[in-house]
């Protein structure tokens, strides 16, 4: 996966360098992210491939709005695992996603502190 959790230049360009809009975007993501992650964990625990696909797809969209390619790729991987209906690889993919989300949250907090 990429070294940088966020393409900062693309993110700031996306929000027209509007710090208030970026703060709202980050807050919305952080609120939604927890819900998606809980849904993904629950889907894996209950071996519900459809829910895993749906939750991972939603999270993939949310992180793509933040120009966060590594987290987007990790969510895409879980979405594909859900679509395949074979969840053996889901726990490892979840661990990768959790690591990327943690890196993303740290970067977003730093961005918010800078604004």
Number of helices: 5
**Rounded average pLDDT:** 94
Q: Which class of secondary structure composition applies to the elements?
A: mainly alpha
What is the name of the CATH class?
Mainly Alpha
Q: Could you tell me how far the N terminus lies from the C terminus, measured between alpha carbons in angstroms?
A: 27 Å
CATH-derived topology: Four Helix Bundle (Hemerythrin (Met), subunit A)
Q: Describe the biggest sheet?
A: none
How much helicity do the residues have? over 70%
Low-confidence stretches: none
CATH architecture label: Up-down Bundle
Determine Rg (CA atoms, Å): 14 Å
CATH superfamily: HPT domain
Tally the beta strands: 0
Shape annotation = elongated
List the helices and strands in order. Answer: HHHHH
Sheet-strand content, in percent, reads under 5%
Estimate nothing, just give the exact number of structural domains: 1
Please characterize this protein's 3D structure:
The chain is mostly helical. It has helices at residues 8-14, 19-45, 49-65, 69-84, 90-114. Helix 2 (19-45) packs antiparallel against helix 3, helix 2 (19-45) packs antiparallel against helix 5 and helix 3 (49-65) runs antiparallel to helix 4 (69-84). The longest helix is centred in the N-terminal third of the chain and has 27 residues, at 19-45.
């Amino acid at each position: 996966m990429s070294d940088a959790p966020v393409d900062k230049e693309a993110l700031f360009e996306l929000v027209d360098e509007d710090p208030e809009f970026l703060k709202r975007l980050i807050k919305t993501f952080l609120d939604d992210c927890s819900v998606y992650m809980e849904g993904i964990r629950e889907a894996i625990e209950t071996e519900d491939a459809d829910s895993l696909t749906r939750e991972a797809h939603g999270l993939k969209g949310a992180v793509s709005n933040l120009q966060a390619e590594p987290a987007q790729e990790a969510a895409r991987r879980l979405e594909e695992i859900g679509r395949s209906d074979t969840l053996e690889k889901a726990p490892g993919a979840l661990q990768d996603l959790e690591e990327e989300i943690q890196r993303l949250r740290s970067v977003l907090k730093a961005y918010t502190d800078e604004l």
